[in-house]
Write a structure and sequence with these properties.
alpha/beta; eight-stranded parallel β-barrel; 10 helices; 13% strand
Length: 372
């Protein structure tokens, strides 16, 4: 019986060995946007996990686009050099394809790391800055409102997405995801809760989608044909009067017309008033409807922790791939254990081949064992 989780998946010209994706996971451990030794340790673990694709954490297009002062960036020669060092080391031992998630935090920028409380840093503080967004509406009631972006600011940010994509290309990145979810800038344009503009970038759905789609088109144009570009979205704000699943379906249609290779479906993150009914796979129904109505390759995420559950989602046609974050932090060998449980095969580094359990003779791909 075919194990869907371990079937190949094609995104344009990029073929993944299986349908497990390492989701972008912020580490809040960069210095001046530059990747360091922690990123090497973290990404090396994820690269050896056996997943089909490794996605770098939300990577800022400029210093002011960072969520926190310790966010990863790719906007200067120094940040490119630092990330290149890490990627070279990872690739020397792991053949996994690597994607990047390109991000601007908008009004959620200039924030403390989660373990430092996550609150907004005062713009006048040494490590803080004034944020920017579609409209001058703060994320939290006690926060300093952002500057509303003018046409010059919109062009600067669009160009920043392209510049980061080009730097990523120079580093050999295989896939490109624009972050349009979790309350960051592109999501802020989409939601009527954060976008109160009265120009061509605000108001009705077409106008609210305009800037995210312009950024997508600009990156798609900058990336060679065959290399996949897609977007991560929040399918709902979980707030009355906010962004909805029906609107997300329209966005997915628009992305597909513009050459998107996939859509990565999450929810929430825009409003402090959100009410999320958490349960295993609680976001999968959103991915299922988007896939059914658009035919776009769909990546599901959200409290999917068990191999059998992940397999059922794919087998039932609710999504095309499974994206894991916290589950992989807790168990960096999750794909190995899933393959053992389901009867699939997974790639492992040759230094670890001898760890293959006796009862799983064909668990690891392409193993060779000599006698000594």
């Amino acid at each position: 019986m075919t194990v869907r989780l371990f079937e190949p998946l094609r995104l344009d010209d990029l073929e993944l060995e299986n349908r497990i994706i390492v989701a972008p996971m912020c580490q809040y451990s960069a210095h001046a946007g530059q990747a360091g030794d922690w990123h090497l340790m973290h990404l090396a673990q994820m690269a050896q996990s056996g997943a089909g694709l490794l996605t770098l954490e939300a990577t800022a297009v400029s210093p002011e686009a960072r969520i926190s002062p310790t966010d990863l960036g790719l906007y200067s020669d120094a940040t490119e050099l630092a990330l290149g060092r890490v990627l070279d080391a990872v690739r020397a031992y792991a053949p996994i394809p690597i994607a990047i998630q390109i991000n601007h935090a908008g009004r959620k920028a200039s924030s403390r790391a989660p373990w430092d409380g996550g609150a907004q840093i005062d713009p006048e503080a040494p490590d803080g800055w004034r944020t920017e967004a579609p409209s001058a509406i703060a994320h939290g009631a006690d926060e300093v409102p952002p500057h509303a972006l003018d046409s010059e600011g919109l062009k600067r940010i669009r160009d920043g997405f392209v510049a980061t994509a080009r730097r990523a290309l120079a580093l050999g990145i295989d896939g490109f995801e624009l972050h349009g979810a979790h309350g960051y800038l592109l999501h802020q344009f989409l939601s009527p809760l954060s976008n109160r503009r009265t120009d061509q970038y605000g108001g009705d759905l077409a106008n609210r989608m305009r800037f995210p789609l312009e950024c997508f088109e600009a990156v798609r144009d900058a990336v060679p044909a065959g290399k996949p570009v897609w977007m991560r979205v929040s399918a709902t704000d979980w707030v009355e009067g906010g962004w909805t699943l029906t609107e997300t379906v329209e966005l997915a249609h628009a992305l597909k017309r513009r050459g998107a290779a996939a859509i990565h479906v999450s929810t929430g993150g825009l409003s402090t008033a959100q009410q999320i009914p958490l349960s295993a796979g609680y976001q999968v129904p959103f991915a299922e409807r988007i896939k059914a109505e658009t035919g776009l390759t769909t990546i599901a995420v959200g409290l999917i922790t068990q191999a059998a559950h992940a397999e059922a989602i794919l087998a039932e046609g609710k999504a095309d791939a499974i994206s894991l974050a916290r589950a992989l932090l807790y168990d960096p060998r999750w794909p190995w254990h899933a393959a053992a449980e389901l009867g699939g095969k997974v790639r492992a580094p040759k230094q670890y081949w001898r760890s293959q359990p006796r009862q799983y003779k064909d668990l690891f791909l392409e193993t060779r064992h000599g006698q000594r």
